[in-house]
């Protein structure tokens, strides 16, 4: 019997003692482990991972493969970058559920998370095109997004300025992952509520959601 796999993806250069999103993320994943001791949990820290960017080397390698070449036809740099890309892609595809944990930076996701999304959003792998348009190939899977921000973007006038959670929701939906829970750790810099209370309430929400995975 194959083990259920959970992929915990974090994108924050700070340690957990300094990061609000990582503190809430840790509360979630530890509760998940308690509830699912037989599941295989993989933690992927993108700031400690060599995430290939879609550059000329990668595109040239793609072109060789699409034109009938094999992996052995690639040069050493192409083999290294496409090999790592495929490793991350396969890891994503094999997982059953996901957590994405990050801060909002300038209304969007950290660049390394965008690079990771470029890796996992691959035609013929996580989605394909049909006569009726694109169709996701990752249906039946579920994710949670935990995001910290200085302001409040989940409601009110600033909702339209959130190009981070809405982007991730769009990307995952494109792959067929339509079930996405959201735990905002927001208002950190506004001073209206103590930061410890914001983190506490977000952690409680995350812990409660762990039972749904």
Automatic annotation (TrEMBL):
Key word Oxidoreductase present: yes
* Function in brief: Quinone reductase that provides resistance to thiol-specific stress caused by electrophilic quinones.
Instruction: Return the protein name.
Output: FMN dependent NADH:quinone oxidoreductase
Q: Which domain of life is it from?
A: Bacteria
SUPFAM superfamilies linked to this entry: Flavoproteins (SSF52218)
The protein's organism comes out as: Labilibaculum antarcticum
Alphabetical UniProt keywords: Flavoprotein, FMN, NAD, Oxidoreductase
Q: Which cofactor does it need?
A: FMN
* One Gene Ontology molecular-function label: electron transfer activity
Q: Which ranges carry the Flavodoxin-like fold domain?
A: 5-203
The UniProt similarity line reads: Belongs to the azoreductase type 1 family.
- What is this enzyme's catalytic activity, as reactions? N,N-dimethyl-1,4-phenylenediamine + anthranilate + 2 NAD(+) = 2-(4-dimethylaminophenyl)diazenylbenzoate + 2 NADH + 2 H(+); 2 a quinone + NADH + H(+) = 2 a 1,4-benzosemiquinone + NAD(+)
Q: Which residues bind FMN?
A: 19-21, 104-107
Presence of the UniProt keyword Oxidoreductase in the record: yes
**Textual note on the cofactor:** Binds 1 FMN per subunit.
What general EC class does the enzyme of this chain belong to? oxidoreductase
The EC number of this protein is 1.6.5.-, 1.7.1.17
Q: Check the record and name the InterPro entries matching this protein.
A: Flavodoxin_fold (IPR003680), Flavoprotein-like_sf (IPR029039), FMN-dep_NADH:Q_OxRdtase_AzoR1 (IPR050104), NADH:quinone_OxRdtase_FMN_depd (IPR023048)
Subunit annotation: Homodimer.
């Amino acid at each position: 019997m194959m083990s259920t796999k959970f992929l915990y993806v974090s994108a924050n250069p700070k340690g957990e003692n300094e990061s609000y999103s990582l503190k809430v993320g840790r509360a979630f994943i530890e509760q998940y482990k308690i509830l699912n001791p037989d599941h295989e949990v993989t933690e992927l820290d993108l700031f400690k991972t060599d995430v290939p960017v879609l550059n000329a080397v990668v595109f040239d390698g793609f072109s060789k493969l699409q034109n009938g070449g094999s992996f052995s036809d690639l040069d050493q740099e192409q083999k290294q970058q496409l090999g790592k890309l495929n490793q991350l892609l396969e890891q994503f595809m094999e997982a059953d559920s996901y957590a994405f944990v990050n801060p909002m930076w300038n209304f969007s996701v950290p660049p390394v998370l965008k690079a990771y999304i470029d890796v996992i959003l691959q035609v013929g792998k996580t989605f394909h095109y049909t006569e009726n348009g694109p169709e996701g190939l990752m249906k039946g899977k579920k994710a949670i997004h935990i995001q910290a921000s200085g302001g409040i973007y989940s409601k009110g006038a600033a909702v339209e300025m959130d190009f981070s959670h809405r982007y991730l929701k769009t990307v995952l939906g494109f792959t067929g992952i339509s079930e996405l829970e959201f735990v905002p750790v927001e208002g950190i810099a506004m001073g209206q509520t103590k930061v410890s209370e914001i983190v506490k309430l977000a952690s409680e929400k995350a812990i409660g959601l762990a039972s749904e995975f």
